[in-house]
Amino acid sequence: MKSLTANEAKTKFGNMLINVQSEPVEIVKNGTSVAVVISSKEYKKIEALKMEIVKSRFANIDPDDLVEGGDFFDEIDSGKYD
Known about the structure:
The protein has about 80 residues and is α+β, with helices and mostly antiparallel strands. About 50% of the residues lie in helices and about 20% in strands. The chain contains four helices and three strands, in the order E-H-H-E-E-H-H. Strands 1-2-3 form a three-stranded mixed beta sheet. The radius of gyration is 21 Å and the shape is elongated. The N and C termini lie far apart (about 45 Å).
């Protein structure tokens, strides 16, 4: 992964946008990593993977374990899960 200082990222923004199409770019400020810039294509892949993980966790849910959302929040407010 390439790394740029925050100042380099600002002054070379156009080049950074080109670079993120092939690999992520880390932004470092005062010696600390503060961000990683990725392409929109890579971001969409990550979001799709997260959705697949969520779907897989709900695939085998027992219908008897489901409750109405309002009822669940009422139970939380009443302290049932404290």
